[in-house]
Amino acid sequence: MTEKGEARFITTVVIIRSLTGGLEMTIDWVLIATHFKKFAISFLQKLWDSFKGKRLEAILKYQADFQDIYITAYANGQTSPINYDNLLGYDWKSLVTWTMNKLGIEQIANPDTPERTNPEHEFRKAYFKKMSSIQVRLNMINSVHGTLNPTFDKPGNAEEMIFDDRAIAKSWARAAVFTPSSQYNKEEAEEKLEHYKDLIEGVTTGLHNDHLFSINKGKVIALDYRKFKPHSSFFKALEKKNITEEAKFIEAVNYKNYLDAEFRSGKQCVRYEKETWENTCILSMQVVGRLRLKYDNMDLRVMGVPRPDIQIGERQHSRKKNPEKFKFCVDIYPTPSYLHTDNLDLIDIAVTTEPPRGSARGELPLWYDIHDQLIPDLWKKVLLSVAWIAHARAGSTAKTLHGHFAPILEEWEIQRLLEWGEGVGLFRRIMEGVDGWTTDEWWWLIVGSICASVQV
Q1: What is the CA radius of gyration of the chain?
Q2: Half-sphere exposure of residue 274: CA atoms within 13 angstroms, side-chain side
Q3: Where are the domains of the chain?
Q4: pTM score
Q5: Quick one: three-class SS letters along 246-310?
Q6: Where is the Transcription factor tau subunit sfc3/Tfc3 C-terminal domain (predicted)?
Q7: What is the pLDDT of residues 278-291, one digit of tens each?
Q8: How far is CA 231 from the centre of its chain?
């Protein structure tokens, strides 16, 4: 069959199935065969199946275009009506010629660009056919992109965040409850909360339902006249968010000071044999090329060759192995880019810079009490937690961090902490103009130094 013959065949099938096939679009192959007497019905059926597999999108579009022009032409009397009692007597040949002249043969060709295809078309029907082979299904899957172009949010700004009175009242109610008893002034606190007396009850109930507050009972109320106290689960939840401990960061800072003293004394290397959190100090500087590690007394053997000092039973059961036999020493060497702590101005800046406060609108971050005084213990817990998660999940935004810390921290105070940390060298944006954060090079040293300097 020639190219023109194929186009005429497709047009004939489209017309007959559209006008005689009903809702199911069935094809009357006997009627079609009368127009292609040189070919057997079985051949025509196989030819149609092959066209559907190769040109389905074009055929569907051609069919829709035909239906549009035929309805208009029929309403205007440009085409003769069909006698469904005598389909063989209808002049199908003239209708096919008229359609091809109106739409053009090239309409049946495959689309030359992906944009011209029907975006709603899916291959599910073909994929789940009983006779579809595994190879055909794999080809279908591989023909579709499995990825999406990344989208980046614009950088957030704490000053531009939209606040309502309820958000401010919520921060005040929370601050009133978390204020230490030794610093709580009942008259001053009540005078401040009076500004939002219509909202305080509602936000307090919400904080109580979120398990940030619990109700004071009995004689405890008489101590500072407060109905609520911090919920015990609040501190446990904050500790769960914080995988590390304050003491571990302080250990890393102390070990950095130890390395400074050893290298300044003229030592070429320092032997490291401990198993503590001092690894944070060593590995953080090694990864940026400020330290070089050399392993000593490491037993290197070809894979599969047993060690003579390990018994047969120990080889079969790892729990029976003596861990001391697998230890080795590490020598730490400074590189030309090594920096001593006292040469890092950002450490002094971070330690002396006041923790972030709220804006002029009056909101109070979690680490400030109702009298706008710092709560050192809460400040260190929040700083440790946010810094660790931002380090472990590079690219986090204030919104994603809020999803991790909710309902403990609000999005606006996380944003303020991130912007404050950017100013002291604790955090940095992963890319200019993109709302994504990670920790900077000396984050562990800054966090440890702040924790060591803040007095509880």
Answers
A1: 38
A2: 12
A3: 3-123, 246-340
A4: 0.64
A5: HHHHHHHHHHHHHHHHHHHCCCCCEEECCCCCHHHHHHHHHCCCCEEEEEECCCCCCCCCCCCCC
A6: 1-402
A7: 788 999 999 999 99
A8: 31
